[in-house]
Write a structure and sequence with these properties.
By secondary structure, the chain is mainly alpha-helical. Helices cover 36% and strands 5% of the residues.
């Protein structure tokens, strides 16, 4: 009996050891063959660079996530900070650091091709072939807008800033190995989309640029998977160092008459609130970036949100102080 037990225990131990080795070897697996880098050389003109600048500092809020924490106050004030990376996302799977988007050839994107940057934005596949979490909504962004962002980033001055390597715990490594795959747009990608104040353009901004759906829908922080109704809120961020140990829960943006917050706003009041900036100092909402949106873009977002399916979803509190957690 003892011999049989030892054999069983040994077999289980061998399986666990083998599984651990497999995860540690494969969590940074390469998707280069499945998602090869396309030949691309962005032919930028002044209009494209200006469009990329507007997206990066405005609705796409690249500056908010790709600036170190100590620079966020400057971003909020409308300063055009160089996006040198280093912002840390403290997630259940570990610490994820935003990369340096300056033109530095050692620590930034100066060493990367336009094709590598395009693949990252379109498919969440890094220059080394490893996959990233689905934190950015750009997989369905128009080609022109992705090219514009790349064109603008090429104009960023070089800032030497060696960003720490992402620190995945074992659960994070396991999820990356078994569950996180490159993004597939799942729809025909538009070559270009003309900005206007229409519902259709508002949907494009909310789902392909500004990530309104990504933050105002409940998600699994381990995998990034959507687990709640679109725009119905309930996504929890914090408590961590970046939120000053506050917990923020995204509100319900659907036009539900009893639990949605849109009933508080007509179009002008919505524009005024988006221009008003942050109320809570450590809110993860990129208020500084969204204050820069044009009136037309804000109207498009407001009009689109009023067309989404109403969802009755009560959010008890959107800001939870540390003492109450």
């Amino acid at each position: 009996m003892n011999k049989i037990l030892l054999i069983v225990v040994g077999a289980i131990a061998a399986i666990l050891i083998g599984f651990t080795i497999f995860i540690n070897v494969n969590y940074e697996q390469s998707f280069d063959s499945a998602f090869p880098v396309k030949e691309l050389s962005v032919k930028a003109d002044s209009n494209m660079i200006e469009r990329g600048k507007y997206l990066a500092y405005g609705p796409a809020h690249c500056a908010h996530c790709h600036s170190p924490l100590e620079k966020l106050e400057a971003v909020d004030k409308g300063e055009e900070v160089t996006m040198s990376g280093g912002f840390v996302f403290e997630l259940p799977i570990g610490k994820i650091y935003s990369p340096n988007l300056s033109s530095d050839t050692e620590t930034g994107i100066g060493k990367l091709s336009d094709g590598q940057l395009y693949r990252m934005l379109r498919h969440n596949v890094r220059h080394d072939g490893a996959v990233c979490l689905d934190l950015m909504p750009f997989t369905t962004m128009s080609d022109y807008d992705i090219h514009s962002i790349i064109a603008f980033l090429r104009t960023q001055p070089a800032v030497k800033n060696e960003v720490p390597k992402n620190e995945y715990n074992f659960m994070g490594k396991m999820i990356r190995t078994l569950a996180i795959k490159p993004a597939e747009p799942g729809t025909t990608i538009a070559a270009n989309i003309t900005p206007d104040s229409s519902v259709a353009y508002g949907k494009y901004l909310c789902e392909s640029v500004a990530n309104c759906r990504g933050c105002h829908s409940n998600r699994d922080l381990k995998t990034g998977a959507f687990i709640g109704e679109p725009y119905a809120g309930g996504f929890q961020m914090g408590p961590d160092a970046t939120t000053m140990n506050y917990t923020f829960v995204t509100p319900n943006l659907t036009p539900d008459p009893t639990t949605g917050i849109l009933v508080r706003y007509d179009e002008q009041r919505f524009l005024d609130r988006m221009r008003g900036g942050r109320i809570h100092q450590s809110s993860p909402m990129p208020w500084g970036s969204f204050k820069r949106l044009s009136n037309s873009d804000l109207k498009a977002i407001y009009r689109y949100l009023n067309t989404v399916k109403p969802v009755n979803n009560t959010i008890a509190a959107t800001v939870i102080p540390p003492a109450e957690k």
